Each structure stands twice: as C-alpha cells, then as structure tokens.
Amino acid sequence: LSIEKEPNAGNPLRKGLKPLMCFDVWEHAYYLSYQNRRADHVKDLWSIINWKEIARRYEA
Q1: Is 20 helix (H, G, I), strand (E, B) or coil?
Q2: Which of 6, 7, 21, 27 stands 20 to 30 A from 13 (CA)?
Q3: Rounded-to-integer distance, Cα 60 and Cα 49, Å
C-alpha cells in the first residue's frame, strides 16, 4: 500500500500498480466548479468517495 504522485498525467497503472482510488488535481478536473480553489476541490472529494468500493479493491 502506497501513496503515489504522478507528474504530467502519469498513471499508476502504467507502472503495474492497482490503485484503490485516485484524485485528479490537474486544473482541468476542477476549474469550472472551483476556479483556482484546488484545496476546496480536494476537500469536497472526500465526501463523495465510495468507501465500500475502496474496501472491495483493497480486499482483492
């Protein structure tokens, strides 16, 4: 289990990893709703996570 930071649209799948969850913090992911408030976007992501799905992925 690890936290990965991928630059330039990198993807953990390319390294053979199996992500439990991913946050897209590139500007295109949040700008229309949050403008330059990246921290607010990330804070709000925590409220929509499907924890049962994350647990299923972890168990697998």
Answers
A1: coil
A2: 27
A3: 18
